[in-house]
Specification:
The mean pLDDT is 96. This protein folds into three domains: 166 residues, Thiamin diphosphate (ThDP)-binding fold, Pyr/PP domains (Rossmann fold), CATH 3.40.50; 165 residues, Rossmann fold (3-Layer(aba) Sandwich); 187 residues, Rossmann fold. The longest helix has 16 residues. The protein is α/β, with parallel strands linked by helices. The strands form four sheets. It has a six-stranded parallel beta sheet with strand order 3-2-4-5-7-6, with helices on both faces. The protein has a six-stranded parallel beta sheet with strand order 11-10-9-12-13-14, sandwiched between helices. Strands 16-15-17-18-20-19 form a six-stranded parallel beta sheet, sandwiched between helices.
C-alpha cells in the first residue's frame, strides 16, 4: 500500500528520473514525501518560472523529460513561461501541479484554476488525475505524449486528496524500445531530388539531436558537397568550423546567408520548421509560392504543409534520417558553393568594432577562443544574444541552451541546470541586464545545490531590443526601456558567490580566468556603452536612419 505521492515518485524513478526542480507547496506534500525514498533529488528553486526553465533545460540536455513540481494557482501560472519554451522548442517537459481537493472544484476555491483548460494552448496534453490508482496509467501516457513525434510539454494536475489517498495499484513498467524503420530507401529518394538542384541548401534543426547526429550531419554534407545552415538557436548541431557550415538563420541573419536561402532552388529541411525567424518574417520564402523544391523531414506528420508545401516529405526523427543520408555513397557535386558559404560565415563572425571601453564582440570572441569545446553556453533574450550568436563558434552538440521562444530570464536558470547536469564541464551564461534581473534570485538556488556557472552580464542600462525598435519607430522618444541595475558583483558575493566588474575589454580575460577558478557561482558584470546597441549599428545610427538622416 502506498499513498499517491509515493506511487508517483516510484514511477518517476522507474522512468529514469533522478532530479526534479520545484518550489514547494502544501498541495503536493505527499509527492515531496515520496521523493527521498524513490531516490530522486529535489532542487528547490526560488520562483516557479526559474524551476520550469531549469527543467526545460534539463530536457534539452538529456533528451528525456525534465520534471518540474509546482503548487496550484500562482505556482502554475508562474511556471507557464517554461511550458511555452518547451512547446516552441520541442522539448519534453512534465509539469506536475499540486491542486485543490477534488470535492472543492467548481466553487472558486482558494487558488483554484482549471489547469487542463489553462494549459491547453501551451502543452501537448494537459489533464487532471482524479483517481490515485490511475497515476501509473496517466504517467505512462504523459511519457508517450512528451517523447513522441515532435516532443513537448505535458501538464498533470494532482488534487491534494488524490495524492494523499492510499492504494495497492501495481507498478506499471516503462514502455519497451521503439522500433525504427529502415530509412535508406527514403534517404536515397530524397537525395536524388536534392542532387538535381543547382543551388541546394540544407537547413537542420528541431528535436532529437545528439552528438552522433551532429557528426552524421557533417559527414553527409561533406560527402554530398552541400552547404548547411542551422535553424534559430540550434548552432550546436554542426561544428561551426566544419568547412560546409553556412551559419545560423536567426533574428539578424548574415545577409549573405539570407541571400543564399532566397536564391536556393532546393531546400532540404532536416527536423527544422523554417518559421518566421529563419525566413526573415516569411520574406525570404513566400508561403503562397516560392518556386523552390522543398524536401522536409520532420517527426510530426502534421508539420509539413504548415505553412510550406513540401515536394517530398518523410515523417521521421531527423537524426535517424541523417544517419541514413550519411550512409549513402558520396555524390559528384563540386563543394565550391559549400566552401564559399563557410567563407561568408567566417567573415561574418569576425569581430566588427562597436563603441565603448568594453566591446561585446571582443568578449564573446575571447570566450570562443579560450573555452573548451564542450563548454555549455546559455542565454535568454535581448540584443546581447545577437553578439553571442554571431561571434561564438559552437563546436560540439549539447553546448547551446537558448530559448527559441525568445523568453527573457531563461539563460541563468538554464546555466544552473546545466551545471548540475554536467558538474565537470564549464558552463557560461551570457545575459543582458534586463534579462538577468528576471531570474537572478536563482543565485540562491545555485549556491544551495552546488551549481557553479560563470555569468557574464552585459549591462548597458536599457532593454536593448525594445530600445532598438523604439528608436526605429519613435526616434529619441524613450519610454519604458530604461533599466536600473544593482551592483551584480556585490550581489553575487552577497549570495556567497564570486563577483567582479569589468570596465575595460582588456580586463575581461583575467576576470574570466578567476571566475572559472572560483569553483562556485561567479558573476562578471561588463559595463557597456549604450551606443553599442546591435552588432551592426549604433544607437545614434539607428536614430538618424529613422529620422531620414
Amino acid at each position: 500500500m502506498r499513498h499517491g505521492g509515493r506511487l508517483l515518485a516510484d514511477h518517476l524513478a522507474a522512468h529514469g528520473v533522478r532530479r526534479v526542480f520545484s518550489v514547494p507547496g502544501e498541495s503536493f506534500l505527499a509527492l515531496l514525501d515520496g521523493l527521498p525514498d524513490a531516490g530522486i533529488a529535489n532542487v528547490v528553486c526560488r520562483h516557479e518560472g526559474g524551476a520550469a526553465f531549469m527543467a526545460e533545460a534539463t530536457g534539452k540536455l538529456s533528451g528525456a523529460p525534465g520534471i518540474c513540481l509546482v503548487t496550484r494557482g500562482p505556482g502554475a501560472t508562474n511556471a507557464a513561461a517554461g511550458v511555452h519554451v518547451a512547446r516552441q522548442d520541442g522539448t519534453p517537459l512534465l509539469l506536475l501541479v499540486g491542486d485543490i481537493e477534488r470535492g472543492h472544484r467548481g466553487r472558486e476555491a482558494f487558488q483554484e484554476v482549471d489547469f487542463p483548460a489553462m494549459f491547453a494552448p501551451l502543452a501537448k496534453w494537459a489533464a487532471a488525475v482524479t483517481e490515485t490508482e490511475r497515476l501509473p496509467e496517466m504517467l505512462a501516457r504523459a511519457w508517450r505524449v512528451m517523447t513522441s513525434g515532435r516532443p513537448g510539454p505535458v501538464v498533470l494536475s494532482l488534487p491534494e486528496d488524490m495524492l494523499d489517498a492510499v492504494t495497492d495499484a501495481p507498478d506499471r513498467p516503462p514502455e519497451g524500445p521503439r522500433l525504427s524503420p529502415d530509412w535508406s530507401g527514403a534517404a536515397a529518394a530524397m537525395l536524388e531530388r536534392l542532387a538535381a538542384a543547382r543551388r541546394p541548401l540544407v537547413v537542420a534543426g528541431g528535436p532529437h539531436w545528439s552528438e552522433r547526429a551532429a557528426q552524421d550531419l557533417g559527414r553527409f554534407a561533406e560527402a554530398q558537397g552541400l552547404p548547411v545552415a542551422l535553424a534559430f538557436r540550434r548552432q550546436d548541431f554542426l561544428d561551426n568550423e566544419h568547412p560546409h557550415y553556412a551559419g545560423e538563420l536567426t533574428v539578424a541573419t548574415n545577409p549573405a546567408l539570407l541571400r543564399r536561402l532566397r536564391e536556393a532552388d532546393a531546400i532540404l529541411l532536416l527536423g527544422a520548421r523554417l518559421g518566421d525567424i529563419e525566413s526573415a518574417g516569411y520574406t525570404a520564402l513566400d508561403p503562397r509560392g516560392h518556386g523552390k523544391v522543398l524536401l522536409q523531414v520532420h517527426p510530426e506528420p502534421e508539420e509539413p504543409g504548415r505553412p510550406w508545401r513540401p515536394d517530398l516529405s518523410a515523417t521521421a526523427p531527423a537524426p535517424d534520417f541523417v544517419a541514413a543520408l550519411a550512409a549513402l555513397p558520396p555524390g559528384g557535386r563540386d563543394a565550391a558553393a559549400a566552401r564559399e558559404a563557410h567563407e561568408e560565415y567566417l567573415r561574418w563572425s569576425s569581430p566588427q568594432p562597436t563603441p565603448g571601453a568594453v566591446r561585446q564582440e571582443e568578449v564573446i570572441a575571447h570566450l570562443s577562443r579560450t573555452l573548451p569545446p564542450d563548454a555549455i553556453l546559455t542565454n535568454g533574450a535581448g540584443n546581447f544574444a545577437a553578439f553571442l550568436g554571431r561571434y561564438y563558434r559552437f563546436r560540439r552538440w549539447g553546448t547551446q541552451l537558448a530559448p527559441g521562444s525568445g523568453s527573457m530570464g531563461y539563460g541563468f536558470p538554464a546555466a544552473v541546470a546545466a551545471s548540475l547536469h554536467h558538474p565537470g564541464r564549464t558552463v557560461v551564461c551570457v545575459a543582458g541586464d534586463g534579462d538577468i534581473q528576471m531570474t537572478l534570485n536563482e543565485m540562491s538556488t545555485a549556491i544551495q545545490h552546488g551549481a557553479a556557472p560563470v555569468v557574464v552580464v552585459m549591462n548597458n542600462g536599457t532593454y536593448g531590443t525594445i530600445r532598438m525598435h523604439q528608436e526605429r519607430r519613435f526616434p529619441a522618444r524613450v519610454s519604458g526601456s530604461d533599466c536600473l541595475s544593482p551592483d551584480y558583483a556585490a550581489l553575487a558575493r552577497a549570495y556567497g558567490g564570486w563577483g567582479a566588474t569589468v570596465e575595460r575589454t582588456e580586463d575581461f580575460p583575467d576576470a574570466l580566468e578567476q571566475a572559472r577558478a572560483a569553483g562556485t557561482l561567479a558573476v562578471i558584470e561588463c559595463r557597456l556603452d549604450p551606443e553599442a546597441l546591435t552588432t551592426t549599428r549604433t544607437l545614434s545610427e539607428i536614430r538618424a536612419a529613422a529620422r531620414g538622416g
